[in-house]
Structures are given as C-alpha cells and as structure tokens.
What does this fold into?
Amino acid sequence: MSQPDVEGHRSNGTTPDSVTNGRTTIDVDGLEVVYSDGTAAVQGVDMTVPEGEFFGFLGPNGAGKTTSIKVFATLLSPTSGEVLVNGFDARSEAHKIRETIGYMAQETSIDPELTAEENIRFACEAYGVSRGDRDGRVDELLDLVDLADVADKRAEGFSGGMKKRLDAATALVHQPPLVFLDEPTTGLDPKARNRLWEYFQRINDLGTTIFLTTQYLEEADQLCDRLAVLLDGQIVADGSPDDLKRQVGGDVLDIELEGGGAERERAMTIAQTFDAFGDATVTETDEGVSVTSERARQHGTDLLVALRDAELTVTGFNIRAPTLDDVFLAITGEKPDSEPDSNTAEVSQ
Ligand code: ATP
It folds into this structure.
C-alpha cells in the first residue's frame, strides 16, 4: 500500500494559517511499532501536526491508533523511526515530552473516592503546579468543563460524560500546549458527547493543539481541521474533512428497493453497467443500493427508470453529497461504527 506523506497545512493548504503559528508539535518519520508477539501495529507512518491544529486520527478497531498515540505520549517505545513531540525526541527526551503534553486515555484515570475538586487538586500536585497557582487553576478548570456546581461531590456518583469531562480537566492542569485524546467519547450518549465536543473546541480555540483518535466520523467531521485515516498500521488517506469527501468523487444516490438480496444483486448489476454513470461505485445497503458517481445528479432518474424497466420496485431514493461515512467505506471497505445504542450508553448529565 502506498504511504502518502501527511505534511500538514504547509503542503496541502487544508489548515488555515490563522489557527497555527507555523510551528510543528508532532513530527513523525517512518514510525514502526512491532509488539513482542510479532504484531506489526504501526507500519511506516510519516506525519506532521502543526501547532494549534485540531488533528484527527481515524480508523477501524485495531488500525493502530492507540499504539501510535502511546508512542507520542512516550508510554511505548517505537521499534523504529523518528518521533519529535513539542521539539523533543520520544526516545531520549521522554520526560520533557511528558511535561509538555496532556494525555486522556481510553479509560478514565480519576479517583472515584475523591470529589471533582480533589481530583483536579491531586492532578495539580502530580504535575507540579505551584501552590500559589492551584486554587485559580482548579476553579478555572471546573468552570471550563462545567463541573463547578458539583465540585464537592464524589466522582463515583457522576455519569459517564461527567467522568470524562473531569478526566479531561485533570489532563490539563499544567496547561500543556498539546493534548492527546484517545477515543474520548466512546460509549457516551449523543448529549454527553456533544458537551465534550464543546469543551474540546473551547480548549482548541484557546490555542491548545489537539490530537484526537476516534472511530466516530461525525466527531471527526465536526471537530477536526485535518484528518488521517489509518488502516492496518498505515496512513491511507489524509486531508481536511471536505478534501476527503471530494476524493469520494461525485454525489451519492441512495435507492430503497422492495424485496431481498436477489433484488439488490440485480439492481447492483444494473447500476454497475449503467453507461451514463461512467466510473461509479456501487454498494449494497440495508435498504437497497447506493451509487456514487460524478453524474449521479444528472442521470439519477435515468437509473431509476432502468430499474423499473427491469421490474424492480423502487420504494424511495435520495441524492446527497458524500459524508465521511462514504469516505470510510470507500477507503476501508468497512462501515464505520454506528452511534452508541441509547439503551446501553452512559447517561449524560
Ligand atoms: P481500537 O480502536 O480497538 O483501540 P486501535 O486503532 O487503537 O484500535 P491498537 O490498539 O493500536 O489499534 O492495535 C493495533 C494492533 O496491535 C491490533 O492488531 C492489536 O490487536 C495489536 N495490539 C495492541 N496492543 C497490543 C499488545 N500489547 N500486544 C500485542 N498486540 C497488540
């Protein structure tokens, strides 16, 4: 698989200069990570993230996102390659990197026995925030993550969303210029997720560079200036969300069909050989088929007529611009994870 160079806004113009000052916070060259059992989790990643950017690392389960973020946060040593974070070398200057980053792991690291305020104070001590600064920092962070009104409540009674917000606050006590967020909203319901998004956006607006990993395409679309898609340990696409959508090529015609698999297969064959669409991508969906083509808007109704002539019953159709889901499907051949089930998701505040 080819290895595109993810060279930031300077080469592809996707990140406005106004959000960066031209400096680089993450600079990775030829990163490889092989676990002791021989699993090659990261296989030659090159990337640069400029200061101030909201950068997203997207990919299915097992793509190598957590492994990469652990290397950048100096929790794991690279097998080979060069990794500079905030100008420091991940192998020889790990302690300097740790002083200048915040890291929010997939599992929250807050102490449920402590109150919200105590958790943040504890983090202040752990990160060496001076005594004189602590009171102000605690109040500021409680406000920022909207937990001031439950400052004296123990974290054990908090919802999943509140725990995540508190965890994020503890990762920020030392005011790091760069924050790593590893799938921060997995398992949260949409309302709790939205509140976290607002909060991440706020810290990015204040100048913090954010490196986010996520399986949720809507999250990447809403938040990120730029994305890289990771698959089997390699970057297979990169660009702004809009760039990636443009790469899909054209618009998407979703067609709902009566009947089952046999009808869908016939419809797919007709769409694949439909001359007016030129180079189209046809996929089966739960309801029927989806056709992506530069000429979907122009000739969509002609295809519907062709399906009717073949005695297939179209029960509905829609022509739309591509989403990141379509990008993900085109690149990885997999449908992205869906939204969490509202019955099993954590309850938001
Ligand atoms: P997820 O979304 O599931 O967290 P991911 O994109 O973060 O996935 P990683 O957790 O980095 O992916 O895993 C990449 C590959 O490395 C997978 O094949 C995984 O099974 C493997 N892997 C992860 N940790 C270890 C380990 N400690 N030892 C061996 N293999 C590992």
The radius of gyration is 23 Å. Residues 1-21, 339-349 have pLDDT under 50 and may be disordered. The chain has two domains: 8-240, 250-321.
